[in-house]
Amino acid sequence: QVQLVESGGGLVQPGGSLRLSCAASGIMFGLSNLAWFRRAPGKQPELVASSNVDGRTEYLDSVKGRFTISRDNTKNTVYLQMNSLKPEDTAVYYCHAVDTRSNYWGQGTQVTVSS
Predict the structure, then answer these.
(1) Could you report the per-residue pLDDT of 22-34, keeping only the tens digit for each?
(2) Long-range contacts, 49-52 (Cβ 8 Å, 24+)
(3) What pLDDT, on the 0 to 100 scale, is given for residue 17?
């Protein structure tokens, strides 16, 4: 059974930091392209950051220099370190994985940036 379980969301003040985690099971994690998406109320989903099996990482322009995606293939976990958070980063953040068989989504974790 495939599971992607996100954690680490919450309420943080502007300028603060959060680290999201996504623990995967039932997928070929080391052969997977991984990504974090987000969806804010009333807006289209955005690809925030991705980590490919070839080592490449890519970021949404608005988060470059503030967010960092990383992966630990020994723990089947992908992380999103978010620094200097802004109110416009408020959204539900979703983990996404694509292996050789299919693609998979987590259930999402809420991030709220507010004073």
Answers:
(1) 999 999 998 899 9
(2) 49/80, 51/78
(3) 98
